[in-house]
Amino acid sequence: MRFDRFDIVAPGLFDEPWNEATVLGSATWLWMHSSAHREAPLHSLATLLLPALKHRQFVLGSEAGKPVFYLSWLNLSAAAEQRYITQSPLELADADWNSGERLWFNDFISPFGHTTDLARLLQRQLFPNRCMRSLDHHGEERGLRVKTHMGIGVIPEQANAWFAAHPLELTA
């Protein structure tokens, strides 16, 4: 699928052919260029990257044939959401990836300055009618912070109602 100048692979959103090995290589290459991911041990790919491919819950964007961003998401139940915000990402069970309707952006990798492009794409084309959450990527420095997001087709009253109906339980 093509949006503007980006070729997008997002099999959970668009029914188009894709190659798992190509996506794995591209996502791993982006990880190696991301200061937040490059020190991750190789064995963490089995927990943090492969389930996204298995469940087709990712977006890989390329520009002029070069990978420039990657995002994975989770559809969590309330119980899985609680585990996600209180445990190490390495403890995320495969069954949790698609266990409910609480959409979380899990990995957001854009090491070459395409963050705004990816955010705009998520809001306008990929998840225009959804409410979402993500963890602040500076959590280790600032403490736990949860960001909320909504697609362009969601009016504030709808977003408020959705977040009220799906409260975040911050318990220890």
Description:
The protein has helices spanning 20-32, 45-48, 50-54, 78-86, 115-126, 139-142, 156-165; strands at 2-3, 6-9, 58-63, 66-76, 102-109, 131-135, 146-150. It is 33% helix and 24% strand. It has a 7-stranded mixed β-sheet. The model has no long low-confidence stretch (mean pLDDT 94). It is globular, with a radius of gyration of 16 Å. The chain has one domain (2-165): Aminopeptidase, CATH 3.40.630. The chain has 7 helices and 7 strands; from the N terminus they run E-E-H-H-H-E-E-H-E-H-E-H-E-H. The protein is α+β, with helices and mostly antiparallel strands.
Give the structural class. alpha+beta
How large, in whole angstroms, is the Cα Rg?
A: 16 Å
Measured by DSSP, the beta-strand proportion falls in 15-25%
Overall CATH architecture: 3-Layer(aba) Sandwich
Strand order of the largest sheet: 1-2-3-4-5-6-7
* Biggest sheet architecture: 7 strands, mixed
Helical run tally: 7
| Total beta strand runs | 7
Number of domains: 1
What assembly state would you assign to the polypeptide chains in this entry? single chain
- Cα-to-Cα separation, first versus last residue: 42 Å
Q: Helical amount among residues, as a percent range? A: 25-40%
What is the averaged pLDDT score? 94
Q: SSE order in H/E notation?
A: EEHHHEEHEHEHEH
Keywords: Acyltransferase, Cytolysis, Cytoplasm, Transferase
Protein name: RTX toxin-activating lysine-acyltransferase
Enzyme class: transferase
GO molecular function: acyltransferase activity
